[in-house]
């Protein structure tokens, strides 16, 4: 959908490299570019599908095929950057988004256009220019045009980590904010499972006596509290990604208990995997609004509460400006650093 709309807006011809010419030989992907790209500015538009790993390999092979065909520049257009949630080190894991960035640069990408990276610092993983576009103007416009009594709304952060984004939305809509803090208390799991408790006896082992490491106090969240008044108000929960909806459903239940009479969820990327549509349909959430950075037609059929905002216009304008060597600052006007 985005590709066709962008083609109409730009009045350009897109190379027919997929789906008819992305060939699957046994379990391998083979790309054949059907036209000459020598000396051309190539824009590879790739939407992340359910099979994210195949999506990445298709992109890398397409970029590499254009590079070895002597394209002048190759710009990747990924409305949703895959593996962006894995951008921090967790225990003995790895920072996968750094790996993906390195692979894209190595394949021959010279520029990247994406939207609402999970963490803005991901831009630093690339050694090429990255334009991280924002969907907030489209979501704000939806709030103003599609929620008649939005003046009686409060912007909600479902966790303290998304408070900055909520504040940015609230300031431009001139509304108040509320923050949900804490978690549901599960008495049994904390008491029975002692793995999260500190050791009762200091074990210095081979550590030198003068270098004793202080015991760490285990993290313990308080019961759920809502900082801010939502009674008799519309609650609008904002976030960048909605995938596993458990936390959104729990937040909606909490807000309903506190007196909110309508609950909306606004997010840029609607991954909505597995049983997310069913959980939304059965929840206290009245409407989930996402953009079309990721295809979700099937999820909409399963859940009428899911609404879509089209952001293809800003992607097409970004492509036009890059191709013509124009400034990109117009696309970031009135965009706060916390968006």
From TrEMBL:
<keyword id="KW-0732">Signal</keyword>
<dbReference type="GO" id="GO:0006015">
    <property type="term" value="P:5-phosphoribose 1-diphosphate biosynthetic process"/>
</dbReference>
<dbReference type="GO" id="GO:0005524">
    <property type="term" value="F:ATP binding"/>
</dbReference>
<feature type="signal peptide">
    <location>
        <begin position="1"/>
        <end position="24"/>
    </location>
</feature>
<keyword id="KW-0007">Acetylation</keyword>
<keyword id="KW-0597">Phosphoprotein</keyword>
<comment type="function">
    <text>Seems to play a negative regulatory role in 5-phosphoribose 1-diphosphate synthesis.</text>
</comment>
<comment type="similarity">
    <text>Belongs to the ribose-phosphate pyrophosphokinase family.</text>
</comment>
<keyword id="KW-0545">Nucleotide biosynthesis</keyword>
<dbReference type="GO" id="GO:0002189">
    <property type="term" value="C:ribose phosphate diphosphokinase complex"/>
</dbReference>
<dbReference type="Pfam" id="PF14572">
    <property type="entry name" value="Pribosyl_synth"/>
</dbReference>
<protein>
    <recommendedName>
        <fullName>Phosphoribosyl pyrophosphate synthase-associated protein 2</fullName>
    </recommendedName>
</protein>
<feature type="domain" description="Ribose-phosphate pyrophosphokinase N-terminal">
    <location>
        <begin position="25"/>
        <end position="108"/>
    </location>
</feature>
<dbReference type="GO" id="GO:0000287">
    <property type="term" value="F:magnesium ion binding"/>
</dbReference>
<comment type="subunit">
    <text>Binds to PRPS1 and PRPS2.</text>
</comment>
<dbReference type="InterPro" id="IPR029099">
    <property type="entry name" value="Pribosyltran_N"/>
</dbReference>
<dbReference type="GO" id="GO:0004749">
    <property type="term" value="F:ribose phosphate diphosphokinase activity"/>
</dbReference>
<dbReference type="GO" id="GO:0005737">
    <property type="term" value="C:cytoplasm"/>
</dbReference>
<dbReference type="InterPro" id="IPR005946">
    <property type="entry name" value="Rib-P_diPkinase"/>
</dbReference>
<dbReference type="GO" id="GO:0006164">
    <property type="term" value="P:purine nucleotide biosynthetic process"/>
</dbReference>
<dbReference type="InterPro" id="IPR000836">
    <property type="entry name" value="PRTase_dom"/>
</dbReference>
<dbReference type="Pfam" id="PF13793">
    <property type="entry name" value="Pribosyltran_N"/>
</dbReference>
<dbReference type="InterPro" id="IPR029057">
    <property type="entry name" value="PRTase-like"/>
</dbReference>
